[in-house]
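Let's practice the habit of predicting before peeking. Look at the sequence and jot down your guess about where helices and strands might fall. Then scroll down.
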Amino acid sequence: MEKPPSSGRDENPKAKGNIRDQSTIEQLVILSNMESINAIFIEQGLSQNERLIQLNKMAISQMKSLLSSNSMKKLK
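Done guessing? Here is the structure:
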């Protein structure tokens, strides 16, 4: 399994407040997507372990896509 994208907390473990306050736009977009997809997986009855595996794969794929996107670079 690939290493998941680093979080704001990983990059700055002593930061105070909500982890979202330290997150990049890409991380926030992916987090929002993962929350929605996780709710669907729960409705489908997937176990927590299976959800984690699938969400991890999706987060990695989405992060790679967003970081290589010319459109995202223009937004910054």
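How did you do? The chain has a mean pLDDT of 83.
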